[in-house]
Design a protein that fits this description.
The complex is a heterodimer of chains A (about 220) and B (about 900). With about 220 residues, chain A is α/β, with parallel strands linked by helices. Helix content of chain A is about 40%, strand content about 20%. Chain A is built from 8 helices and 12 strands. A 5-stranded parallel β-sheet of chain A has the order 2-1-3-4-5, sandwiched between helices. Chain B is of the alpha/beta class and about 900 residues long. Chain B is built from 28 helices and 25 strands. In chain B, strand 17 and strand 18 form a beta hairpin. The radius of gyration of chain B is 44 Å and the shape is flat. The chains are: A alpha/beta (about 220), B alpha/beta (about 900).
Chain lengths: ~220, ~900
């Protein structure tokens, strides 16, 4: 059984998550502080951690980097609105995804599934399919509605990265570093140019994107439809 | 009678409390001479206080190696004295700042009349003591009667020694208690004989004279009498506090006429004593006759005026040429009951040729006013050598010109005599005398008139070349000539002096007028400061600076001035002292005289606004008569600045009230707004717990959908509240970056579609709208708020359109609906906080649109609402200079592309 560790100082939130996640077939462990949480990661070996940002004993980034020093367990950050900068920082130091409170339980379960799947060894070389979009990373072929679409190298690189992280958020910084290397200091404006270009090629209505979603202030997410 | 003098205890307490307010108490141990045991008594009493738990320290004590005194002193903490270098010697003074920093409850300061070494802050120790009291520290101190300013002269006379260390009598006014330490002269002499009295090292011979029984008896009488008077005064002021006896004054008002002569100092002291014993108010009056005063005379006059001020007089100076008449006029109009004049002093101003001395004229014109003519004492150094020299120089020059004129006219007359006759030449003489009157003094004019009369007689009136006059007619002529010359010349010279004084007065009045006028129309502190500094420095032809207060207790470090004036720490310290003590100081005063500026506090009835400093150019003295005028200007200025301070405070209060009102409105509206979704949630959930509902699938999902909507609503309220508090507190920081407007609109539209499906949303974005610079998250909130508002106030099914178009370097985003719109008169208020339209069906806090407005304005943009022609409401956002162009050109994009490809 998949086990989830919830680190949140609010007992009510922990209870809610326990009820809804157990119903979905997960085993749930609870911790009220970062210190307890880190202990339980060692003791209970959970498959995924839900980490609240407003912990009383430690700030989120600190707790996460402590954890990342010795564990690669997937972590989903739970946060309130207007903490985008903090979220980006946590994603950049190794969080897998984030969710803004209050959230829909269904959405949480979907995020958990995506995060766990990404940790599984990737032997599957099946083409990625989402809605009308098919991406074959082996043959580097992209099709929309069966038609082959021609992408520029950068656009392809961008799409490949998003496909590899399908369903997860990818920050601006992560994309920029992946595509242009760690030392290139480029403005996110470049990114927008390529996102717009990519949308024109893969979206049905580029003004109303459904595949390539903007996460305001954080980055982008390729939806799995 | 006895009842009248028994003060009501409450009133007594009130009086004491009033005095206590922030100020320390001063207790003076007062004696007739050294050796009576003042210091010893003081220590005894301090010891008593100490055992009562009072924090007592010694600020300065002279034990003079007396064992009993030294022993007593050991029980107290002693503040180390401050060593001061002066002329190669190291002297010790009380460390005033150390005492202030130590903040004891009570400090002992011996020898109140001591003169400090030059270089420490205050010239005299009593000023240190006054400062300590002002800081709220109680002080015990000692002093002998001969040091009191008003007794010093008498003591000098009785004992035959010079008293240099003097303190103004007004220091005793600040004392809460004066304790007389009295022993009989015999006792004191006995102690002296036993070697128990320390007399100092040098003055032994002089002291022999001092410590005679007769002298001591006189001193004892003085101190006893003075103490009795003080007690009387205290009783009277308590009676006043109790309200039994309205003004405790006798109704007397004394006026002393003063001059630059050092003799005036005695007159001033005499008047003070008299006024004190009469419990009368008194005024020192100086008449500016317009005669030029030498530097030394100005200095002496300033000293006299300061002395009078210190002794508690009101000092007035009036420009007038007629001393006697002005003194009388002032006395009448101010209800003076007694005028004090010097026996000789005043006549120096009248000139030797005055018909009667000023004293005589005042006596004659005084009618119901008493006149006291006082013998002047001391060495009569009427004119210091410098004064004589300068005065003589200018006078001699003028007089020489006058004589030359008379001589020249005599020459002309001699030439003209054969033609015109000896009567006619007198007319030329007359013209000459009148001409002289234009520049010479009255005395000189009279001399010239007499001289010309003699010359006329000698050279022209037969028998010529004798002073004899042949005919009675000619004798009459010459008398008539002299009278006419004098009569014509006198008013002329008076007119001239008057004119000079009028000019001075006019300049002052003009300045005051323009000053107060400009102050009344200016409405910001910098403007007021600028205008007044400009006028004051122009008038005095001096540098003028200003410090304003930045809190109730300190002044701003920054100087306001016309020129770039550098103020060092020392100078600033002086200004701060002036501010803290509300007393003029710095140059031209006795306190902190080393400063380069003269500082006056800017006072209003309740507070100190700041400090004004003035500095005369090198080599020019401060005019003796300007102190008062400067203070008048200062008062005007402080009132204007205070007015601005108050206005500022008022504005703040208004804002506070406004935010309070908003806070209340917020609470009202929020409690309603929060309760609605909470009620929904509670209702739904409790229904869901009912077994009957659990069975019904449809009912269950309907209830759950309601719950979800209610939570979304709650969430949006919380987010809006957070945004508003950020906007309000100024914590809102824009994180602008260039963004794709499509992206923005689609994010918003997506969120809206997820929330409700019953408002079909169409999007129209002009193709030429490129990247836009804005805060993506905040702008998302703006659009979301507008759309939520639209959805809430239009019936389901109402189509909504978002359109984006380019406007110059800016962009316009419009959200238009085809709903019922709002009432036209409501349009201007749509963006007000807590505004809710009358047509509005269900609530909303009324914050959404006002937050949108705040965010758009933070972007430098504008948000407007208008009614569509087909009905329905449009909300339009214009963001100027938001278009980002050329930054991502095709070229640079290609370059980035190639880089990625390699």
């Amino acid at each position: 059984m998949t086990s989830v560790l919830v680190i949140d100082d609010e007992a009510q939130i922990r209870r809610l998550l326990r009820v809804s996640l157990e119903k979905q077939g997960y085993a749930v462990h609870e911790a009220g502080t970062a210190a307890d949480g880190l202990q339980m990661v060692v003791g209970k070996k959970p498959d995924i951690v839900l980490l609240d940002l407003g912990l009383p004993d430690k700030d989120g980034a600190e707790a996460l980097s402590d954890l990342r020093a010795w564990s690669s367990v997937p972590v989903i950050v739970l946060s309130v609105r207007n903490a985008e900068e903090e979220i980006v920082r946590l994603l950049d130091v190794g969080a897998d995804d984030y969710l803004i409170k209050p959230f829909h339980t269904g959405e949480l379960v979907a995020r958990i599934k995506v995060a766990i799947r990404h940790r599984a060894p990737k032997e599957n070389q099946e083409p990625f399919v989402s809605g009308r979009l098919t991406v074959d990373l082996v043959s580097r072929e992209v099709r929309v509605g069966g038609e082959v679409v021609k992408l520029t190298p950068t656009e392809y690189g961008l799409l490949r990265m998003l496909v590899q992280n399908a369903g997860r958020v990818v920050t601006h910084g992560q994309i920029l570093r992946e595509l242009w290397g760690p030392n290139v200091d480029l403005d996110t404006n470049y990114l927008r140019v390529y996102i717009t270009g990519l949308r024109k090629k893969i979206e049905e209505n580029p003004h109303m994107p459904r595949l390539l979603i903007t996460e305001p202030g954080v980055g982008y997410r390729l939806m799995v439809l | 009678m006895s009842d009248d003098f028994r003060p009501d205890p409450d009133a007594l307490l009130r009086a004491i409390e009033r005095e206590r307010e922030g100020k320390g108490k001063l207790k003076v141990f007062f004696g007739m001479a050294a050796g009576v045991g003042k210091t010893y008594t003081m220590l005894k009493e301090a010891r008593q206080k100490q055992t009562e738990g009072v924090d007592v320290v010694i600020g300065y004590l002279e034990s003079h190696q007396r064992k009993d005194t030294e022993e007593l002193a050991t029980v107290f903490e002693t503040i180390p004295r401050r060593a001061v270098e002066y002329r190669g010697r190291t002297l010790e003074e009380m460390d005033l700042d150390a005492v202030i920093a130590r903040r004891p409850a009570l400090v002992l300061v011996d020898e109140l009349a001591h003169t400090n070494v030059p270089g420490v802050r205050n010239e005299k120790r009593y000023q240190d003591v006054l400062e300590l009291i002002a800081m709220g520290i109680d002080v015990f101190t000692t002093v002998n009667v001969q040091h009191l300013e008003s007794f010093a002269d008498t003591v000098e006379e009785i004992a035959g020694i010079a008293i240099h260390e003097r303190i103004p009598d007004s220091v005793f006014d600040a004392a809460d208690q004066v304790v007389l330490i009295d022993i009989s002269p015999e006792e004191l002499l006995k102690r002296l004989a036993e070697g128990k009295v320390y007399l100092g090292d040098s003055a032994l011979s002089a002291m022999e004279n001092f410590f005679k029984k007769s002298t001591l008896t006189a001193l004892r009488e003085m101190s006893l009498r003075y103490t009795a008077l003080l007690v009387d005064h205290q009783l009277a002021s308590f009676a006043k506090e109790s309200g039994r006896e309205s003004p405790a004054k006798s109704g007397d008002r004394l006026l002393v006429a003063i001059s630059p002569s050092p003799n005036s100092a005695h007159l001033i002291r005499w008047t003070r004593q008299r006024a004190f014993s009469l419990k009368a108010e008194w005024t020192a009056l100086f008449i500016e006759t317009g005669q030029p005063l030498s530097e030394a005379a100005q200095e002496s006059l300033r000293k006299n005026m300061n002395l009078a001020r210190q002794l508690g007089a009101a000092v007035v100076s009036i420009p007038s040429e007629d001393v006697a008449e002005t003194v009388l006029r002032y006395a009448r109009s101010n209800n003076v009951s007694q005028i004090v004049l010097g026996k000789s002093g005043l006549s120096t101003h009248a000139g030797p040729f005055a018909r009667r001395s000023v004293t005589d004229r005042i006596l004659a014109g005084s009618r119901d006013i008493d006149v006291a003519v006082v013998q002047e004492k001391g060495t009569t150094v009427l004119h210091s050598p410098t004064r004589l020299a300068t005065a003589a120089k200018s006078q001699a020059g003028r007089f020489a010109v006058s004589l030359a004129l008379v001589a020249a006219i005599t020459g002309i007359n001699l030439l003209a005599l054969p033609e015109v006759g000896y009567h006619t030449v007198s007319i030329l003489y007359l013209l000459c005398v009148i001409a002289i009157a234009f520049f010479a003094t009255r005395t000189e004019v009279l001399v010239c008139a007499a001289l010309s009369a003699l010359l006329w007689d000698y050279f022209f009136i037969p028998p010529r070349f004798t002073l004899a006059i042949g005919k009675l007619e000619d004798a009459l002529m010459i008398i008539l000539y002299f009278v006419t010359a004098a009569a014509l010349a006198f008013p002329m010279s008076r007119l001239r002096v008057n004119q000079k004084m009028l000019a001075v007065r006019e300049r002052r009045v003009t300045l005051l007028y323009s000053f107060s006028q400009s102050l009344s129309i200016l409405h910001s502190i910098p403007e007021i400061v600028q205008a007044s500094l400009d006028r004051i420095s122009k008038y005095f032809d001096a540098e003028c600076i200003l410090f304003l207060r930045d809190s109730e207790t300190t002044i701003e470090r920054s100087v306001r001035s016309l020129a770039a004036v550098q103020i060092d720490e020392k100078e600033f310290g002086v200004a701060q002292w002036c501010f803290a003590n509300r007393t003029p100081c710095g140059k031209y005063t006795d306190t902190l005289a080393f400063a380069s500026f003269h500082y006056i506090p800017l006072l209003t009835p309740d507070s100190t606004i700041g400090v004004m400093g003035i500095r005369m150019p090198e080599g020019r003295a401060w005019p003796h008569d300007q102190d008062q005028f400067l203070q008048t200007l200062g008062r005007n200025l402080s009132l204007s600045i205070e007015r601005e301070f108050l206005a500022e405070e008022n504005r703040k209060n208004l804002m506070a009230r406004e935010s309070e009102r908003l806070g209340r409105a917020l609470l009202n509206s929020i409690s309603h707004e929060l309760r609605t979704p909470l009620t929904t949630i509670k209702g739904c959930v409790s229904a869901l717990m009912d077994p009957a509902t659990v069975e019904d699938r449809d009912a269950r999902s309907a209830l759950l959908a309601e719950t979800l909507t209610a939570t979304d609503r709650l969430n949006s309220i919380v987010e809006n509240l957070l945004s508003m508090s950020r906007l309000e507190s100024g914590m809102l920081r824009l994180k602008k970056s260039s963004n794709d407007i499509f992206d923005l609109v689609s994010v918003v539209a997506d969120a809206m579609r997820r929330q409700s499906h019953d408002h079909p949303l169409s999007i129209r974005i002009d193709e030429d709208v490129p990247q836009v610079s804005l805060d993506f998250i905040l702008m998302t909130q703006v659009l979301t708020n507008i759309l939520v508002n639209t959805a809430r106030h239009t019936p389901p099914g109402t189509p909504v359109e978002i359109s984006v178009e380019r406007k110059g370097r800016g962009v316009r985003i419009t959200v238009a609906d085809a709903g019922p719109g709002v009432l036209p008169e409501e349009l201007p208020h749509l963006f007000d906080r807590f505004f809710r339209g009358r047509k509005a069906a269900s609530g909303g806090v009324g914050l959404g649109l006002s937050i949108s407005k705040g965010i758009v304005e933070a972007h430098g943009g504008k948000i407007t609402a208008y009614l569509n022609r087909k009905g329905g409401l449009s909300v339009s956002i214009f963001l100027p200079d938001s278009i980002v162009e050329g930054e991502i050109s095709e070229e640079s994009a290609r370059q980035a592309e190639e880089q990625a490809a390699t």
